[in-house]
Write a structure and sequence with these properties.
This protein has 4 helices and 5 strands, in the order ββαβαβαβα. It is α/β, with parallel strands linked by helices. InterPro entries: STAS_dom, STAS_dom_sf.
């Protein structure tokens, strides 16, 4: 799942789940939306990415390349070392800024919801 939010200067994509060949059908529409927003900064939050292959990396690279052509920048935050490795193997690390200060919230704690125990009527 990819959620897009905007501010006057930034487009933020929050990605959850796999970013791979199986998800590629949604990439063109999302890329068109992001490019159409014409924000100078694209932030890609990868805290909840569970797996990324070269197809997912190509999608991110296309976003970064489009932004760079407009004079913008693309920031990866919360990227796992394995995800960065895929981008590096693709030869595209220079298209991205890496946010070294971002710390993903503990996903185990974030996924826990407080639900009251249902009561049974006699």
């Amino acid at each position: 799942m990819i959620e897009i939010s905007t501010s006057p200067t930034t487009t933020t994509l929050v990605i959850a789940g796999d970013l791979d060949l199986a998800e590629r059908d949604q990439f063109p529409e999302i890329a068109a939306r992001v490019v159409g927003l014409r924000r100078q900064l694209v932030v890609i939050d990868m805290c909840r990415v569970t797996f990324m292959d070269s197809t997912g990396a190509a999608f991110l690279i296309s976003l970064a390349d489009a932004g760079r052509k407009r004079g913008g920048a693309t920031v990866l935050r919360g990227a796992d070392p394995r995800d960065l490795f895929v981008i590096e193997v693709c030869g595209a690390m220079d298209l991205f800024r890496i946010d070294p200060d971002h710390r993903c919230e503990d996903l185990d704690e974030a996924s826990v919801t407080t639900n009251p125990t249902p009561t049974q009527e006699p």
